[in-house]
């Protein structure tokens, strides 16, 4: 995804895919109501706090997603508390360049730099992934999208 901690931010070396995409849109003039970045959302017992960049650019989208999670019974995973631990990420690029309100659903892990201990290590493998976490995130995002119809 390209997420990095606050102390690692460098717009030249991270989020290269989103930097490219925002400069080379697949359809000229493309826009969207909003965007949701699913970023490291599958770890066992993951907890998703409201990420600070998301709250700066798209608080209405954050609230919509977190309210939906609560309604679906996933309030234990989607914590309505803001955390500043992402220095930059793909949604930041989309927010700044395209002005599409975009959020980052990303695990906040207590006791580390905010990221899961396996992040960017050889232990970052499918063994970390949990189907109940993926189900909670997937159901939440699908419900948000479904309600847009």
Number of strands: 6
Mean pLDDT: 87
* CATH fold call: Aminopeptidase
What is the ordering of alpha helices and beta strands? EHEEHHEEHEH
> What is the CATH class designation?
Alpha Beta
Give the uncertain stretches in residue-range form: 5-9
Tally of domains? 1
Query: Outline, from the CA principal axes?
Result: globular
Radius of gyration: 15 Å
- Main sheet properties: 2 strands, antiparallel
Q: Percent of residues in beta strands?
A: 15-25%
Helix count from the secondary structure assignment: 5
Strand order in space, largest sheet = 1-5
Supply the CATH architecture.
Answer: 3-Layer(aba) Sandwich
Fraction of residues in helix:
25-40%
According to CATH, the homologous superfamily is Zn peptidases
Distance between the termini: 28 Å
Going by helix content, strand content and strand pairing, the class is alpha/beta
Topology summary:
Elements: E1 4-5, H1 16-23, E2 35-39, E3 48-51, H2 52-57, H3 59-71, E4 78-83, E5 86-88, H4 90-98, E6 102-106, H5 131-147
Parallel strand pairs: 2-6, 3-4
Antiparallel strand pairs: 1-5
Question: What keywords describe this structure?
Answer:
single chain; alpha/beta; Aminopeptidase; two-stranded parallel sheet; 5 helices
Task: Describe this structure in a few short sentences.
The protein is α/β, with parallel strands linked by helices and about 150 residues long.
